[in-house]
């Protein structure tokens, strides 16, 4: 049985022509973390949607998208050195 | 610990909220924040935020409820996307239950208030506060005896009033001196504890609206409160059993741990008392944590959060009006 993945870290390397499109798709589902890195909680159903939307846009011969799938945000620790994008995940804005 | 995008966002700084690339973007003096539309369920706008109708159609498509508050923290209304789950059958049965079978349901709500208050205060009794014993006994023994004897809704409401009044009186035994409440004052609250109670109740009330939205129930047909116009009174009913567990526990927690202090977190202006911005932040964060807190549910046999428990209460009520299964609101003692 496949696991229920609920948390994703997504990184991409996309040709200049399509990078905007990919950015737009990703920010519907995940929170921007760095310029080409997204992450956040996601439901298994939304993960399928995200994947299929990305597959339509990218050129599979040139572009690169990686999804690090995790069962929750409690399975890893994070360390940031240097400037950080301002807090996009805050509950209170 | 990595953070994830919350399903509820509270916006408290002035700015512009807009639709951009089929997702949400919030701009203020700090910069741009991208809010992923697919992880969002609710928005709380606690300040003056600019929006346009284009955004509303978009939020409606994504089934997101938006709650509006004014400068004073007063609840002003909810943007309620076109009813996604309407069922004429359930609505008719709900109306029928309200006309013919209102009292037993209302009694169940009051019984749950008493049981849950008992559960909350018992903690303080257990830790050496013996003075609240008479009230606890009254809740545990006399109220359950009184309830089945009640024949009319107004008598029931006066009993409910009595329960709350005596609950507020116990505050002087468990809270620090500057938070003692003489009596409940609403619209506008004039002392710190009343301000906290009002704000907390409002947040819970709006949370319940969002939860009922995901069921077939009609928001205006209520049982304990008079089903009147202009208000979603069913949400007042359903939030009642959770008030002691969520609102008052949060208040006791932030006040007794000195996370909220009278000198730092309140504005006293004109004749009333308001939570200021840092105070609101502390309170909302504490309350949100409590709503998300998970526990083993007795009958569900899995872990659920208080927020889900509110939705299950709505499901239970629906099952009661449709199939006639007995209705008991969420009771803290049922959790395992």
UniProtKB/TrEMBL annotation, chain A:
Cofactor(s) required, per the database record: Mg(2+)
SUPFAM superfamilies: TTP0101/SSO1404-like
One biological process term in Gene Ontology: defense response to virus
GO molecular function: hydrolase activity; metal ion binding; RNA endonuclease activity
Keywords: Antiviral defense, Endonuclease, Hydrolase, Magnesium, Metal-binding, Nuclease
Enzyme class: hydrolase
Keyword Nucleus attributed: no
Domain of life from the UniProt record: Bacteria
EC assignment: 3.1.-.-
Keyword Acetylation tagged: no
Binding sites annotated in the UniProt record for Mg(2+): 13
Pfam family name, one: CRISPR_Cas2
Gene3D superfamilies, alphabetized: 3.30.70.240
InterPro entries, per the entry: CRISPR_associated_Cas2 (IPR021127), Virulence_VapD/CRISPR_Cas2 (IPR019199)
NCBIfam families, alphabetized: cas2
Family: Belongs to the CRISPR-associated endoribonuclease Cas2 protein family.
Subunit structure comment from the entry: Homodimer, forms a heterotetramer with a Cas1 homodimer.
Biological role: CRISPR (clustered regularly interspaced short palindromic repeat), is an adaptive immune system that provides protection against mobile genetic elements (viruses, transposable elements and conjugative plasmids). CRISPR clusters contain sequences complementary to antecedent mobile elements and target invading nucleic acids. CRISPR clusters are transcribed and processed into CRISPR RNA (crRNA). Functions as a ssRNA-specific endoribonuclease. Involved in the integration of spacer DNA into the CRISPR cassette.
Name the UniProt record assigns to this protein: CRISPR-associated endoribonuclease Cas2
Organism: Sporomusa termitida
Gene designation per UniProt: cas2_3
UniProtKB/TrEMBL annotation, chain B:
Organism: Sporomusa termitida
Biological function: CRISPR (clustered regularly interspaced short palindromic repeat), is an adaptive immune system that provides protection against mobile genetic elements (viruses, transposable elements and conjugative plasmids). CRISPR clusters contain spacers, sequences complementary to antecedent mobile elements, and target invading nucleic acids. CRISPR clusters are transcribed and processed into CRISPR RNA (crRNA). Acts as a dsDNA endonuclease. Involved in the integration of spacer DNA into the CRISPR cassette.
Top-rank lineage group of the source organism: Bacteria
Annotated EC: 3.1.-.-
Keyword Hydrolase among UniProt keywords: yes
Binding locations of Mn(2+): 160, 225, 240
Gene (name only): cas1_2
Oligomeric form and interacting partners: Homodimer, forms a heterotetramer with a Cas2 homodimer.
Any one Pfam family match given in the protein's UniProt record, by short name: Cas_Cas1
Assigned protein family: Belongs to the CRISPR-associated endonuclease Cas1 family.
Keywords: Antiviral defense, DNA-binding, Endonuclease, Hydrolase, Magnesium, Manganese, Metal-binding, Nuclease
GO terms under biological process: defense response to virus; maintenance of CRISPR repeat elements
GO molecular function: DNA binding; DNA endonuclease activity; hydrolase activity; metal ion binding
PANTHER family for the chain: CRISPR-ASSOCIATED ENDONUCLEASE CAS1
Cofactor: Mg(2+); Mn(2+)
Name this protein carries in UniProt: CRISPR-associated endonuclease Cas1
InterPro entries in the record: CRISPR-assoc_Cas1, CRISPR-assoc_Cas1_C, CRISPR-assoc_Cas1_HMARI/TNEAP, CRISPR-assoc_Cas1_N
